[in-house]
């Protein structure tokens, strides 16, 4: 009996220890969060390279916490379909221009016409306003404004013409369009054709369009300068490329994952801004060396030209958010943080 009792106690102790070990195992071997992502532009463009480098940074620092699986770019999900895909939870995270879904989140126009850097918008409360609008309207977090501070030019295959008041006249010009520019281009009397960036080279080659707007950097990589021989100065607007994350998927992440992703994205706001500014002069030199002619407005007309662009963006947003009614407070707050209105 004593032997049996002794064995029973040992068995009981072993069973208890095993149970404790099983209970403790999930706590000590917590699974990593997995995040799916896509990007709007092809991999060879600098903007996508920034995103992929940022993802690599998150994955390196997030070992054992969170890992992001990039499923591809526009070949995986069309660039204009990606925002809806993240909203609906088809993927968790998307790197995309805000203007691609501006009809759903009209507040994005504040970034388009911004007079501040991404870092300044974060410091003065603009970034928080932008995130709030995204959560309420589109079921996503707006985590950051990447590669900000890069502006746009119109590039043409024939010498630009100007109105009597010195402003660019695009009458008769077939201009590649997308949502970020449309309201402005209407004022310049352009004939527009909306298409993804991946289709523009072929459209230029076939004469479907004979002009396109693009950022200060990237034209040589796209090879559009094989057809476009004139650049119109000055610049207008800002890139509005951001990282958006499905709100339900975000809330399902661990606090550690959320903190890490947010911290890295904010770091890359500043890093990507500085990196891109260094490339503007280099790309301009490449285009000039390749024979592109830069045609400028006069200083006075250039200011009017820029103001036309900004006013078109703010007016579009004002109408969409009822800036004279229910959205008046939001409109005023965005003007204060992004346009520095008093």
Describe this structure in words.
- It is found in: Periplasm.
- Its main location: periplasm.
- This is C4-dicarboxylate ABC transporter substrate-binding protein.
- One of its GO terms (cellular component) is periplasmic space.
- This protein has 342 residues and is of the alpha/beta class.
- The chain folds into two domains: 33-146 and 240-277, D-Maltodextrin-Binding Protein, domain 2 (3-Layer(aba) Sandwich), CATH 3.40.190.170; 150-239 and 281-339, 3-Layer(aba) Sandwich (D-Maltodextrin-Binding Protein, domain 2).
- 48% of the residues lie in helices and 19% in strands.
- The chain has 13 helices and 13 strands.
- The strands form three sheets. A six-stranded mixed β-sheet has the order 9-8-10-5-11-13.
- Strand 1, helix 2 (46-61) and strand 2 (66-72) form a beta-alpha-beta unit.
- The longest helix has 35 residues, at 255-289.
- The radius of gyration is 25 Å and the shape is globular.
**Overall residue-averaged pLDDT value:** 91
Low-confidence stretches: 1-7, 9-28
Distance between the terminal alpha carbons, to the nearest Å? 90 Å
Oligomeric state: single chain
Strand order of the largest sheet: 9-8-10-5-11-13
The CATH class of the largest domain is Alpha Beta
Largest sheet: 6 strands, mixed
Please state the overall shape, judged from the principal axes of the Cα atoms. Answer: globular
Overall helicity: 40-55%
N-to-C order of helices and strands = HEHEHEHHHEEEEEHEHEHEEHHEHH
Query: Could you tell me the radius of gyration in angstroms?
Result: 25 Å
CATH architecture of the largest domain: 3-Layer(aba) Sandwich
Number of strands: 13
Whole-number tally of structural domains = 2
